[in-house]
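Researcher:
Attend to token order:
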Amino acid sequence: MSSASLPEYLSLAAIDAHVARALAEDLGDGDKTSLWTINPATRGSARLIAKETGILAGTVVADRVFYVLDNAVQIHWETFDGENVEPGQLLATLSGPLRSMLSGERVMLNYVQRMSGIASHTNEFVTALRDTSTQVLDTRKTAPGLRHLDKWSVLIGGGVNHRLDLSDEVMIKENHIAAAGDLRKAIESVDRNNKSSVKKRVVVEITSLEQIEVALDTNHVDRLLLDNMVTVLPDDAVDVSMLISAVNKIGGRVATEASGKVSLGTVRQIAESGVNYISVGALTHSVRALDISLIVQTTDVTPGTAPSVHIP
């Protein structure tokens, strides 16, 4: 059983509900291959092995897959969320009924591989910003239905969560500005409505140096999102002069966030402009799963008789 703690926006009940839907999607009306080839009494063990370097994530969700499917399958973790893994490393040993283990294998791997992929990519950006004060933010560019797990994976990789959903904070972007009439009108309209006892944080997207003073003059903004102020040059160099000018103009009056043209090749130079945060959509919108395999240990199999249930 994993010892990882949950972020405040997740609960075991929510994870179990998500897992139940995933299992229903994968099992359909039954895993015919396992039902027809493996006796329910057949027990054994399997090894979960990393096939490449990365950061492990998703151990709790893996545990819950078998809690929901068949809690007779137990996982003993050798490695835990947030730890580095190397090719060939033993991550966990599974033991219990092999029919259930193989029926839940793909769902379990899908969760662990995706979450580990996000955590690993996030950690690459975090590592690139080592010795700076800039933090890596995620975005809402997540797979539908996987928002909370994707964002948890970012945390495990060392990143910071941006707003969880549209109700979490106000972010005035160019389309809101266009619809409201202009930037000042958009900010003032938000301020008239942001009157609850716990005010929502207000972030404003800025695309020009001229907009900075307009936004700050209102005194109703908590962070400025400096969008697409980076130019990638033909020789792969990066021009961050506009971004530096924006950060200097803001002068620490509010927090700053950079977005656009962010990659592992550009993120360090962007951070050196002095921004507080860099948001990276690629952490979750272009996920590459970490290669992890489950291998049954044939020497540990305790066979039963031939399958007793025939399903036409």
